[in-house]
Request: fold
Amino acid sequence: MTDALAHMGAGFAEPVHGAQQTFRLLLGAMAEPGRLHTLHDAALAGLATAEAELRPPFGLALAATLLTLLDADTPVHLAGVLDTETARAWLRFHTGARATADVAAMTAAVARDVDAALCDALAIGTDEAPQAGATLLLEVEALSDSPLAGAVALKLRGAGIESARDLAVRGLPAAFWQWRIALQSELPRGVDIVLACGDRLAAIPRSTRIESEA
Amino acid sequence: MTDIANPYARALRQQWLAVLAHAPRRLLEQHAGALADEPFTRLRAPEIGLTMVRARIGNEGDRFNVGDATVTRCVVRHRGTDGRLAAGVGYVLGRDEARAEWIARLDAMLQQPELHDALMREVIAPLREATARRRADEAALTASSRVSFDTLASETSP
Reply:
């Protein structure tokens, strides 16, 4: 265990400052759906350590989001390739959150590859308590506001967007976006999504309507 | 040294951590201050929190909650000359961030095989003595006001 601690991935250099700056970033990302945001230097200070083997077990933006949003009271589910012993230990050490295998009981899911089973198991809340809907944090291959080869081109509309905003996302199956579009009719129930790639992130809250063009 | 499966190594580390946790602040500062140039990185910056102290009366019966105590903790990482990484932890009672970090630093360096023996000799041994001396002084001070209620045997008893 001590040895695991010696090789534990890094967290924020300044936990309070890093989390505050990232929280502000997430707030901005949720307010302006689909707009790309780059991590603040305060968040990168500790996470982007020069020693490659001591980097966190997630991408920088996803790691910063997890450090900011999770605490001991947040059940989190790690899906697919992200569910490793290292990742669990890192979450436990830095945030106190315990990874749960039970998808139905969690408030945040972290995934790189989403499948139908995960989507269907996510809580979307109820009309009385829409806040019980899960937050889906996804690490994607590429994220851009201009067209991207091999990426799904999304046209986003809704609250926080003047007319329409373009977002290209690579690394998520078309079935996922169909599921997300089908969920739009359930508002105010739904799932809030944060897409992370490298040191950048964008959010697609449940109020955003997606028109897929791919 | 970091092998927790080895009960001997584990007991040894418990011992030096206990010595560090009880060491007088002034001496600890002296020893840890001399290591300020070593390559440390903070894994968990010093943070203050509450912990519930639980106890059993006379080491018997059910445990009960005595009360909350403030605790400061810190984890640092040290890179040895051969690139070996060691993580040191510091937990102290009370709100003293510097002390928790000094202990974490010394703990990390004590786990480096090439530094271990020298540190045990030059840091842990004197600190252990200082703590023992302080405890003896306190015990002596308390003993001077000790009242013994000796019962005299009654003359009628056999």
Remarks:
- The two ends of chain A are 47 Å apart (CA to CA).
- The first strand of chain A starts at residue 37 and ends at 38.
- Residues 2-212 of chain A form a domain with the Rossmann fold fold (CATH 3.40.50.11310).
